[in-house]
Amino acid sequence: MKQNQEQKRLLEQATSHYQKSINLAEEYLAKRGLSLVDAEKFRLGVVNQPLVGHEAYENRLAIPYITRAGVVDIRFRAIDYSEPKYLGLPGSETRLYNVEAYFQATDWICLCEGEIDTMTLSKLGYPAIGIPGVKNIKSHHYKILSDFDRIYVFADGDTAGRDFAKDLARRVAGVIPITIPDGEDVNSLFIKNGSDWFKGKVAA
Questions:
Q1: Whole-angstrom Cα distance, residue 85 to residue 114?
Q2: What pTM, to 2 d.p., does this model score?
Q3: 203 assigned to some structural domain
Q4: Is the Cα torsion angle 113, 117, 121, 127 positive or negative in sign?
Q5: Is 93 within a domain?
Q6: In the chain, how many domains are there?
Q7: How does strand 108-113 pair with strand 150-154?
Q8: pLDDT tier at 119 (50, 70, 90 boundaries)?
Q9: CA angle at 40 for the pair 191 and 50, rounded to the nearest 5°
Q10: Residue 73: is it exposed, middle or buried by C-beta count within 10 angstroms (0-12/13-18/19+)?
């Protein structure tokens, strides 16, 4: 769905508003190996005082999806481990996260499952984009990925993640699945092992 200028203005307004309360998520972010500096880079916020229509997202982490045209979507993640883990805006289409990495990458890029994992790889210096769950990849995403010679896929260490990597390899040339241990993901491995686990996984 094409967004009009008013929709973009409201998304920017919400992002800026929620950014002011990011300190409320400092403890949660620290547990994920992320700092307030990292949060600032990705313009994360907390829905402390919900704007009109955002009442259902109160106390959640606001994760804006930002392109060169500005903020195009916001996803809201529970930081108190309540369910559902994620909530989205009504009518939002599935988008790739951190698309700026597409322009920064050379002939290779990393693909993650989820925003937090994408932030983690970016923190480590890798150009990384993310999909909000393996079931949410779309046909036009394959075309975007096909622009690269190598796509390092860091899917979660479960059946769905492994199946996703295999299916992507059948659809896009240059896919290199990175084996994630059972029950782990990029962020959990970073928390447990720091950057050491990732050394040698990507041939830059």
A1: 12
A2: 0.94
A3: no
A4: positive
A5: no
A6: 2
A7: parallel
A8: very high
A9: 105
A10: buried
